[in-house]
Design goal:
eight-stranded parallel beta barrel, 2 domains, 12% strand, TIM Barrel, two-stranded antiparallel sheet, 13 helices, Non-ribosomal Peptide Synthetase Peptidyl Carrier Protein, Chain A, alpha/beta
Length: 360
Protein backbone atom coordinates (compact mmCIF):
# COMPACT_ATOMS: atom_id res chain seq x y z
CA UNK A 1 0.00 0.00 0.00
CA UNK A 2 3.03 2.29 0.03
CA UNK A 3 1.92 3.97 -3.23
CA UNK A 4 -1.05 5.39 -1.30
CA UNK A 5 1.17 7.00 1.34
CA UNK A 6 1.64 10.26 -0.45
CA UNK A 7 1.97 13.86 0.68
CA UNK A 8 -0.92 16.24 0.20
CA UNK A 9 -0.56 19.76 -1.19
CA UNK A 10 -3.30 22.38 -0.91
CA UNK A 11 -2.33 25.75 -2.28
CA UNK A 12 1.00 26.67 -0.72
CA UNK A 13 0.51 24.26 2.19
CA UNK A 14 2.23 20.87 2.10
CA UNK A 15 1.29 18.04 4.44
CA UNK A 16 3.22 14.91 5.36
CA UNK A 17 0.23 12.66 4.78
CA UNK A 18 -3.22 12.76 3.26
CA UNK A 19 -5.22 12.16 6.47
CA UNK A 20 -7.30 15.14 7.57
CA UNK A 21 -9.42 15.53 10.69
CA UNK A 22 -12.69 17.01 9.45
CA UNK A 23 -14.64 19.87 10.96
CA UNK A 24 -17.07 18.34 13.46
CA UNK A 25 -19.83 20.47 14.94
CA UNK A 26 -19.67 20.33 18.72
CA UNK A 27 -16.46 18.29 18.74
CA UNK A 28 -13.42 19.61 16.84
CA UNK A 29 -12.47 22.37 19.24
CA UNK A 30 -8.85 23.05 20.20
CA UNK A 31 -8.49 20.06 22.59
CA UNK A 32 -9.67 17.53 20.01
CA UNK A 33 -7.54 19.14 17.31
CA UNK A 34 -4.48 18.99 19.56
CA UNK A 35 -4.99 15.30 20.21
CA UNK A 36 -5.52 14.57 16.51
CA UNK A 37 -2.38 16.47 15.48
CA UNK A 38 -0.29 14.69 18.11
CA UNK A 39 -1.65 11.41 16.74
CA UNK A 40 -0.45 12.33 13.23
CA UNK A 41 -3.41 13.92 11.48
CA UNK A 42 -1.95 15.91 8.57
CA UNK A 43 -4.04 18.90 9.57
CA UNK A 44 -7.26 19.58 11.41
CA UNK A 45 -10.28 21.81 10.87
CA UNK A 46 -12.10 23.68 13.62
CA UNK A 47 -15.80 22.95 14.07
CA UNK A 48 -18.01 24.84 11.62
CA UNK A 49 -18.97 28.40 12.56
CA UNK A 50 -21.75 30.56 11.16
CA UNK A 51 -20.46 33.55 9.24
CA UNK A 52 -22.68 35.96 11.20
CA UNK A 53 -21.37 34.67 14.52
CA UNK A 54 -17.74 35.12 13.52
CA UNK A 55 -18.42 38.70 12.43
CA UNK A 56 -20.29 39.83 15.55
CA UNK A 57 -18.75 37.65 18.29
CA UNK A 58 -16.98 39.63 20.96
CA UNK A 59 -13.48 38.96 22.24
CA UNK A 60 -14.60 38.02 25.73
CA UNK A 61 -13.84 34.79 27.54
CA UNK A 62 -17.11 33.24 26.43
CA UNK A 63 -16.01 33.19 22.78
CA UNK A 64 -12.25 32.73 23.10
CA UNK A 65 -12.30 29.00 22.45
CA UNK A 66 -13.71 29.56 18.96
CA UNK A 67 -10.65 31.52 17.89
CA UNK A 68 -7.91 29.70 19.79
CA UNK A 69 -4.93 28.62 17.69
CA UNK A 70 -1.60 27.58 19.17
CA UNK A 71 1.82 27.44 17.55
CA UNK A 72 2.13 23.67 17.78
CA UNK A 73 -1.08 22.90 15.88
CA UNK A 74 -0.24 24.58 12.57
CA UNK A 75 -1.41 24.06 9.93
CA UNK A 76 -5.01 24.32 11.01
CA UNK A 77 -8.17 25.22 9.13
CA UNK A 78 -11.43 26.96 9.99
CA UNK A 79 -14.79 26.19 8.40
CA UNK A 80 -17.54 28.70 7.65
CA UNK A 81 -21.21 28.11 6.93
CA UNK A 82 -24.04 30.55 6.30
CA UNK A 83 -26.42 32.11 3.82
CA UNK A 84 -25.29 35.71 3.32
CA UNK A 85 -22.38 36.08 0.87
CA UNK A 86 -21.47 39.56 2.06
CA UNK A 87 -20.77 38.25 5.58
CA UNK A 88 -18.30 35.57 4.52
CA UNK A 89 -15.46 37.91 3.56
CA UNK A 90 -15.27 39.71 6.92
CA UNK A 91 -15.70 36.40 8.75
CA UNK A 92 -12.83 34.81 6.81
CA UNK A 93 -10.64 37.83 7.52
CA UNK A 94 -11.21 37.54 11.24
CA UNK A 95 -10.36 33.84 11.21
CA UNK A 96 -7.11 34.46 9.35
CA UNK A 97 -6.24 37.21 11.83
CA UNK A 98 -6.88 34.67 14.61
CA UNK A 99 -4.19 32.43 13.15
CA UNK A 100 -6.01 29.89 10.97
CA UNK A 101 -4.00 28.80 7.93
CA UNK A 102 -6.83 27.68 5.65
CA UNK A 103 -10.49 28.60 5.16
CA UNK A 104 -13.02 25.91 4.27
CA UNK A 105 -16.56 26.65 3.08
CA UNK A 106 -19.31 24.26 4.13
CA UNK A 107 -21.69 23.40 1.28
CA UNK A 108 -22.37 19.97 2.77
CA UNK A 109 -24.15 20.13 6.13
CA UNK A 110 -27.66 18.62 5.84
CA UNK A 111 -29.15 20.94 8.47
CA UNK A 112 -32.51 22.43 7.49
CA UNK A 113 -33.01 25.83 5.93
CA UNK A 114 -33.04 28.71 8.40
CA UNK A 115 -35.50 31.61 8.09
CA UNK A 116 -36.25 30.58 4.52
CA UNK A 117 -32.60 30.90 3.47
CA UNK A 118 -30.26 28.17 2.34
CA UNK A 119 -26.97 27.31 3.97
CA UNK A 120 -24.68 24.31 4.17
CA UNK A 121 -25.73 21.51 1.83
CA UNK A 122 -28.85 23.39 0.78
CA UNK A 123 -26.62 25.82 -1.12
CA UNK A 124 -25.99 23.00 -3.60
CA UNK A 125 -29.45 23.86 -4.94
CA UNK A 126 -28.42 27.52 -5.37
CA UNK A 127 -25.21 27.58 -7.44
CA UNK A 128 -25.26 31.33 -7.95
CA UNK A 129 -25.27 31.99 -4.19
CA UNK A 130 -22.65 29.33 -3.48
CA UNK A 131 -20.30 30.71 -6.13
CA UNK A 132 -20.83 34.28 -4.94
CA UNK A 133 -19.68 33.14 -1.49
CA UNK A 134 -16.57 31.59 -3.05
CA UNK A 135 -15.84 34.80 -4.94
CA UNK A 136 -16.37 37.00 -1.88
CA UNK A 137 -13.99 34.96 0.26
CA UNK A 138 -11.29 34.37 -2.34
CA UNK A 139 -11.17 38.05 -3.24
CA UNK A 140 -10.56 39.10 0.36
CA UNK A 141 -8.19 36.35 1.52
CA UNK A 142 -4.43 36.90 1.41
CA UNK A 143 -2.88 35.03 -1.51
CA UNK A 144 -1.03 32.64 0.80
CA UNK A 145 -4.21 31.43 2.52
CA UNK A 146 -5.81 28.51 0.63
CA UNK A 147 -9.58 28.41 0.21
CA UNK A 148 -11.27 25.00 0.09
CA UNK A 149 -14.85 23.78 -0.16
CA UNK A 150 -16.72 20.86 1.42
CA UNK A 151 -19.57 19.50 -0.72
CA UNK A 152 -21.89 16.54 -0.91
CA UNK A 153 -22.31 14.68 -4.19
CA UNK A 154 -25.49 16.68 -4.90
CA UNK A 155 -28.64 17.84 -3.14
CA UNK A 156 -30.63 14.79 -4.31
CA UNK A 157 -30.55 12.18 -7.07
CA UNK A 158 -32.18 14.28 -9.80
CA UNK A 159 -30.42 15.29 -13.01
CA UNK A 160 -30.92 18.95 -12.06
CA UNK A 161 -29.08 18.44 -8.79
CA UNK A 162 -26.20 16.73 -10.57
CA UNK A 163 -25.92 19.66 -12.97
CA UNK A 164 -25.93 22.08 -10.04
CA UNK A 165 -23.19 20.09 -8.29
CA UNK A 166 -20.90 20.36 -11.30
CA UNK A 167 -21.73 24.02 -11.83
CA UNK A 168 -20.47 24.71 -8.30
CA UNK A 169 -17.60 22.21 -8.57
CA UNK A 170 -16.15 23.74 -11.75
CA UNK A 171 -17.05 27.29 -10.81
CA UNK A 172 -15.31 27.04 -7.44
CA UNK A 173 -12.05 25.90 -9.01
CA UNK A 174 -12.32 28.64 -11.64
CA UNK A 175 -12.66 31.19 -8.82
CA UNK A 176 -9.49 30.06 -7.08
CA UNK A 177 -10.45 27.24 -4.73
CA UNK A 178 -7.38 25.07 -4.03
CA UNK A 179 -9.16 21.81 -3.15
CA UNK A 180 -12.63 20.35 -2.71
CA UNK A 181 -13.72 17.65 -0.28
CA UNK A 182 -16.70 15.61 -1.44
CA UNK A 183 -18.89 13.52 0.86
CA UNK A 184 -20.43 10.63 -1.05
CA UNK A 185 -24.04 11.06 0.11
CA UNK A 186 -26.78 13.34 -1.13
CA UNK A 187 -27.85 16.13 1.20
CA UNK A 188 -31.33 14.64 1.56
CA UNK A 189 -29.81 11.35 2.76
CA UNK A 190 -28.29 13.06 5.78
CA UNK A 191 -26.27 10.13 7.21
CA UNK A 192 -28.46 7.27 5.97
CA UNK A 193 -27.25 4.72 3.45
CA UNK A 194 -23.67 4.19 2.32
CA UNK A 195 -21.40 6.93 1.03
CA UNK A 196 -21.04 6.42 -2.73
CA UNK A 197 -17.32 5.79 -3.13
CA UNK A 198 -17.74 4.87 -6.80
CA UNK A 199 -19.06 8.38 -7.47
CA UNK A 200 -15.92 9.71 -5.78
CA UNK A 201 -13.79 7.36 -7.88
CA UNK A 202 -15.34 8.61 -11.12
CA UNK A 203 -15.06 12.23 -10.02
CA UNK A 204 -11.33 11.88 -9.42
CA UNK A 205 -10.78 9.88 -12.59
CA UNK A 206 -12.55 12.58 -14.63
CA UNK A 207 -10.60 15.40 -12.91
CA UNK A 208 -7.10 14.00 -12.28
CA UNK A 209 -5.41 17.41 -12.00
CA UNK A 210 -7.77 18.75 -9.35
CA UNK A 211 -6.96 18.31 -5.65
CA UNK A 212 -9.84 16.27 -4.27
CA UNK A 213 -10.50 14.69 -0.87
CA UNK A 214 -13.07 12.03 -0.09
CA UNK A 215 -15.39 11.79 2.90
CA UNK A 216 -18.03 9.45 4.26
CA UNK A 217 -17.98 6.09 6.09
CA UNK A 218 -14.42 6.36 7.38
CA UNK A 219 -14.79 4.59 10.70
CA UNK A 220 -11.68 2.40 10.81
CA UNK A 221 -8.12 2.44 9.49
CA UNK A 222 -9.10 -0.22 6.95
CA UNK A 223 -11.93 2.01 5.70
CA UNK A 224 -9.46 4.85 5.20
CA UNK A 225 -7.07 2.71 3.17
CA UNK A 226 -9.96 1.26 1.16
CA UNK A 227 -11.28 4.71 0.25
CA UNK A 228 -7.87 5.89 -0.92
CA UNK A 229 -7.35 2.77 -3.01
CA UNK A 230 -10.86 2.58 -4.45
CA UNK A 231 -11.40 6.26 -5.21
CA UNK A 232 -7.87 7.47 -6.02
CA UNK A 233 -8.58 10.63 -4.04
CA UNK A 234 -5.64 12.84 -3.06
CA UNK A 235 -6.67 12.75 0.59
CA UNK A 236 -9.43 11.77 2.96
CA UNK A 237 -11.35 13.77 5.53
CA UNK A 238 -12.07 11.66 8.63
CA UNK A 239 -15.09 12.87 10.57
CA UNK A 240 -17.16 10.74 12.97
CA UNK A 241 -14.56 7.97 12.91
CA UNK A 242 -12.06 10.27 14.64
CA UNK A 243 -14.27 11.16 17.62
CA UNK A 244 -12.92 9.29 20.63
CA UNK A 245 -10.57 7.33 18.36
CA UNK A 246 -7.51 9.44 17.46
CA UNK A 247 -5.66 6.14 16.99
CA UNK A 248 -7.32 5.95 13.56
CA UNK A 249 -4.58 8.24 12.25
CA UNK A 250 -1.47 6.23 13.27
CA UNK A 251 -3.26 2.97 12.48
CA UNK A 252 -4.05 4.16 8.95
CA UNK A 253 -0.50 5.40 8.45
CA UNK A 254 0.83 2.00 9.50
CA UNK A 255 -1.36 0.24 6.94
CA UNK A 256 -0.34 2.71 4.26
CA UNK A 257 3.30 1.92 5.01
CA UNK A 258 2.55 -1.74 4.37
CA UNK A 259 2.77 -2.71 8.03
CA UNK A 260 0.40 -4.93 9.96
CA UNK A 261 -2.57 -3.31 11.66
CA UNK A 262 -1.34 -2.09 15.08
CA UNK A 263 -2.91 -3.65 18.13
CA UNK A 264 -5.65 -1.48 19.65
CA UNK A 265 -4.44 0.64 22.55
CA UNK A 266 -4.48 -1.01 25.95
CA UNK A 267 -6.83 0.32 28.59
CA UNK A 268 -3.93 2.13 30.26
CA UNK A 269 -2.85 3.67 26.94
CA UNK A 270 -6.40 4.86 26.41
CA UNK A 271 -6.34 6.49 29.82
CA UNK A 272 -3.20 8.44 28.90
CA UNK A 273 -4.88 10.02 25.87
CA UNK A 274 -8.22 10.63 27.61
CA UNK A 275 -6.38 12.29 30.51
CA UNK A 276 -4.44 14.47 28.09
CA UNK A 277 -7.67 15.40 26.31
CA UNK A 278 -9.17 16.37 29.67
CA UNK A 279 -6.12 18.46 30.56
CA UNK A 280 -6.46 20.38 27.29
CA UNK A 281 -10.15 20.98 28.04
CA UNK A 282 -9.25 22.37 31.46
CA UNK A 283 -6.91 24.85 29.78
CA UNK A 284 -9.88 26.26 27.87
CA UNK A 285 -12.98 25.73 29.96
CA UNK A 286 -14.04 25.82 33.60
CA UNK A 287 -14.20 22.42 35.36
CA UNK A 288 -17.95 22.04 34.90
CA UNK A 289 -17.84 22.72 31.14
CA UNK A 290 -14.75 20.52 30.75
CA UNK A 291 -16.40 17.56 32.49
CA UNK A 292 -19.57 17.99 30.39
CA UNK A 293 -17.57 17.97 27.18
CA UNK A 294 -15.44 15.02 28.24
CA UNK A 295 -18.54 13.03 29.15
CA UNK A 296 -19.62 13.44 25.53
CA UNK A 297 -16.20 12.38 24.24
CA UNK A 298 -16.04 9.59 26.81
CA UNK A 299 -19.05 7.91 25.27
CA UNK A 300 -17.02 7.61 22.07
CA UNK A 301 -13.78 6.66 23.83
CA UNK A 302 -15.71 3.86 25.55
CA UNK A 303 -15.97 1.98 22.25
CA UNK A 304 -12.32 0.97 22.58
CA UNK A 305 -12.68 -0.37 26.11
CA UNK A 306 -13.10 -4.18 26.47
CA UNK A 307 -16.28 -3.51 28.48
CA UNK A 308 -17.57 -0.87 26.11
CA UNK A 309 -21.27 -0.99 26.99
CA UNK A 310 -20.59 -0.78 30.73
CA UNK A 311 -18.15 2.08 30.18
CA UNK A 312 -20.63 3.94 28.00
CA UNK A 313 -23.18 3.84 30.81
CA UNK A 314 -20.58 5.03 33.30
CA UNK A 315 -19.61 8.01 31.12
CA UNK A 316 -23.27 8.91 30.64
CA UNK A 317 -23.67 9.04 34.44
CA UNK A 318 -20.71 11.39 34.97
CA UNK A 319 -21.86 14.80 36.20
CA UNK A 320 -18.71 16.36 37.66
CA UNK A 321 -14.98 16.59 37.09
CA UNK A 322 -14.31 14.58 40.24
CA UNK A 323 -16.52 11.72 39.05
CA UNK A 324 -14.85 11.75 35.64
CA UNK A 325 -11.38 11.48 37.16
CA UNK A 326 -12.55 8.76 39.55
CA UNK A 327 -13.95 6.81 36.61
CA UNK A 328 -10.58 7.00 34.84
CA UNK A 329 -8.71 5.80 37.92
CA UNK A 330 -11.08 2.94 38.61
CA UNK A 331 -11.69 1.70 35.06
CA UNK A 332 -8.69 2.71 32.98
CA UNK A 333 -5.66 1.69 35.03
CA UNK A 334 -5.17 -1.91 33.88
CA UNK A 335 -2.89 -3.24 31.16
CA UNK A 336 -5.86 -5.11 29.67
CA UNK A 337 -6.02 -5.18 25.87
CA UNK A 338 -8.33 -2.71 24.22
CA UNK A 339 -10.50 -3.37 21.18
CA UNK A 340 -11.17 -1.82 17.81
CA UNK A 341 -14.37 0.27 17.78
CA UNK A 342 -17.35 -1.31 16.05
CA UNK A 343 -19.65 0.74 13.85
CA UNK A 344 -22.94 -0.47 12.37
CA UNK A 345 -22.73 1.89 9.39
CA UNK A 346 -20.05 0.03 7.45
CA UNK A 347 -19.70 0.86 3.76
CA UNK A 348 -20.31 -2.29 1.68
CA UNK A 349 -17.43 -1.34 -0.61
CA UNK A 350 -15.01 -1.29 2.30
CA UNK A 351 -15.93 -4.79 3.45
CA UNK A 352 -15.19 -6.27 0.06
CA UNK A 353 -12.44 -3.96 -1.12
CA UNK A 354 -10.12 -6.82 -2.00
CA UNK A 355 -12.75 -8.09 -4.43
CA UNK A 356 -13.05 -4.83 -6.34
CA UNK A 357 -9.42 -3.83 -6.61
CA UNK A 358 -9.82 -3.86 -10.36
CA UNK A 359 -12.09 -0.85 -10.13
CA UNK A 360 -9.14 1.47 -9.55
Amino acid sequence: MSELLKPLKIGNLEFESCLVQAALSGYSDWPMRQISREMKAAYTIHEVMLEKFVVVAGNGKRNQHHFKVTEDEHPVGAQLMGSEPEQFGPAATRLVESGFDLIDLNFACPAKKVSGRCRGGYLLSQPEVALEIVSQVRSILPENIPLTVKMRRAFDDTAESEDQFFEIFHGAFERGVAAITVHGRYVVQKYKGPSDWLFLQKLKKDHPTRTLLGSGDLFTASDCVDMLRITGMDGISIARGAIGNPWIFPQTLALLRGENMPEPPTVKEQKKIIQKHLNYCLQMYDPKKASTLMRKFGIYYSRLHPESERMKEKFIAVNSLEKFMTLLDECYSSEEAGCYPLFPEMNPLASRATDIAGLV
